[in-house]
Amino acid sequence: MESSERWGEGRYLKFMGQLFRIEKVFTYLAMASAFIMVCLTAADAFGRYLLNRPVTGAYEVTEKYLMVFAVYFALAYAYREGANIRVTFLVSRLPSQARLVINYFVQIFSILFIVFLFASATRMNLGRLGDIVELTKKLSIPVWPAYLVISMGLLFMSLWVFLDLRQVKKGKSGLFKEESSEQSVSL
């Protein structure tokens, strides 16, 4: 019996729809962060080298916020799209039953590892909630929003990896998606 049948098809589909909407928001936030990072870095370089007036706090905002937002908001999307590195020359030569066992092991290990990262990051970040970044002597900003994004991104990705556990047998898990012919590189 599939988990969607046990939990109720309607509830499962509604839950998955909500996850996709959250992922879409996270993905747009990651894209916006990357775009702002490019614009801010370009403005800082232009101001620094042509006008001799760099953008105050550009490095700090890019490092402490924009990079974190771009990476951790995009984690779940990258996972779901199969954008991870795989070395398959050994596993692809195994019988299908052995390959399935290894794939389940890798999926479960990935879940545990991401949950470990989430717990570690959250524990570390709770101790640093009072951290601030001084942009100037008069202007400081808290760093806790970036720390919160790290935990949110890892939690959301761990949820996707867990939900994909039932997709391993079908070969549709984000960890084991086959790349398309235009993405593959021949050696």
Task: Enumerate how many helices there are, as a single number.
Answer: 6
Question: Which parts are unreliable, with pLDDT below 50 for 5 consecutive residues or more?
Answer: 180-187
In percent, how helical is the residue content? 55-70%
Shape: elongated
Q: Report the mean per-residue pLDDT as an integer.
A: 84
List the helices and strands in order.
Answer: HHHHHEEH
Question: How many separate domains?
Answer: 1
Strand order of the largest sheet: 1-2
- Classification by helices and strands: mainly alpha
Q: Per DSSP, what share of the residues sits in E-state strands of 2 or more residues? A: under 5%
| CA(first)-CA(last) distance | 42 Å
Number of strands: 2
**Main pleated-sheet profile:** 2 strands, antiparallel
Radius of gyration, Cα only, in angstroms? 21 Å
Could you explain the architecture of this structure?
The protein is mainly alpha-helical and 187 residues long. It has one domain. Helices cover 63% and strands 3% of the residues. The protein has 6 helices and 2 strands. The protein has helices at 3-7, 9-49, 58-72, 75-80, 96-126, 144-163; strands spanning 132-134, 140-142. It has a two-stranded antiparallel ribbon. Strand 1 (132-134) and strand 2 form a beta hairpin. Helix 2 packs antiparallel against helix 3 and helix 3 runs parallel beside helix 6. The longest helix is centred in the first third of the chain and has 41 residues, at 9-49. The radius of gyration is 21 Å and the shape is elongated. The termini are far apart. The model is unreliable at 180-187 (pLDDT under 50).
